[in-house]
Design brief:
71% helix; 9% strand; 191 residues; mainly alpha; three-stranded antiparallel beta sheet; 6 helices
Length: 191
């Protein structure tokens, strides 16, 4: 499916516990990236893709589902549950992880015709997915930023109601946009 290249990170001296912990955190956020070798001064990682996980449509659906939940929880949190707002930002990490996975998958499909054929992607569809992934990732960041601000600021009843209405509208718009994008692929299948 994808050429599996190794990534070696090496320090001039022993890698500290804190740096090792940060590296491990970064690795766990990237689907398919596994540590294959580790010593005191470095770490070697390699990408081991699972073909079932790499389907672009499934990745987009998962990103959209996470964003929909983030919007819904932001609306509830802005209304009456500030603690819920803190959890919204954590889900943005998963959106970011899926974004990088989708970009990697689409890039491979543009380079390898066999992969493009497996996912029934024309070159223009690869571009469409790439643009959509960028918008979804940016939306996840914006919702996360909103939830951080909303959790730390006192918002009046009227403003809170307007925010909730806006978040509900964004959720509906997102549903329509994703459904339309994915339905278009079924109406105009690759020939």
């Amino acid at each position: 499916l994808m050429a599996s290249k190794a990534i070696r990170i090496e320090g001039k001296r022993t890698i500290s516990r804190e740096d090792r912990s940060r590296l491990m955190g970064a690795v766990t956020r990237l689907v398919g990236l596994e540590i294959v070798d580790e010593d005191a001064k470095g770490m070697t990682m390699q990408f081991h893709p699972d073909p079932a996980v790499l389907d672009p449509e499934k990745i987009v659906r998962r990103m959209a589902s996470l964003i929909k939940g983030m919007l819904r929880d932001s609306a509830v949190g802005a209304r009456h549950d500030r603690a819920l707002l803190a959890l919204v930002g954590e889900r943005d990490d998963e959106v970011d992880r899926l974004y990088f996975l989708l970009v990697r998958t689409i890039r491979t499909a543009t380079i390898d015709p066999e992969v493009a054929e497996r996912y029934q992607l024309a070159p223009i569809e690869c571009l469409d997915y790439r643009v959509l992934a960028s918008y979804l990732e940016s939306l996840g960041d914006a919702i996360s930023d909103f939830s951080k601000r909303a959790s730390s600021e006192i918002v009046g009843e009227e403003v809170s109601a307007q925010l909730v209405e806006s978040l509900d509208t964004l959720e509906k718009m997102g549903d329509i946009a994703i459904s339309s994008f994915l339905a278009r692929r079924r109406v105009h299948p690759r020939r």
